[in-house]
Amino acid sequence: QVQLVESGGGLVQAGGSLRLSCAASGNIFNIYVMGWYSQAPGKQRELVALISSGGRTNYADSVEGRFTISRDNAKNTVYLQMDSLKPEDTAVYYCNALQIGGSRYWGQGTQVTVSA
Asked: Are strands 91-99 and 77-82 parallel, antiparallel or unpaired?
């Protein structure tokens, strides 16, 4: 089992920045991809950014150039730096971990609200 705890959400004005953190614990040794997903009210959960154990990253087109995903392996933590935030970025953001073998884990989510 893997436990994921997110933090860092909040309310920010358009154009502002937030940094989300996701701390992983438990059986973390076989995690090879971690990522962030967002879910706005009435919409499906969608990918925001991924980072592999080797540091390769992938972003949704809507956040490319504005968001940066990174990881600190010593702290078992993944970050999402969100800059130039827009009202349409408002959503609950979930941390995700994928293990070799296919097991997938989710955090509890953290709310990000961007006011116009």
From this structure: unpaired
CA 82/CA 19 separation, integer angstroms: 6
Rounded-to-integer distance, Cα 44 and Cα 55, Å: 27
The amino acid sitting at 26 is G
State the Cα–Cα distance between residues 110 and 21, nearest whole angstrom. 10
Q: What Rg, from alpha-carbon coordinates, does the chain have? A: 13
HSE-up (13 A, CA, CB side) for residue 112: 31
> What pLDDT, in 10s, does the model give residues 42-63?
999 999 999 998 899 999 999 9
Q: What residues does 20 pair with on adjacent strands?
A: 80
What are the backbone dihedrals phi and psi of residue 15, each rounded to the nearest 5 degrees, phi first? 95, -10
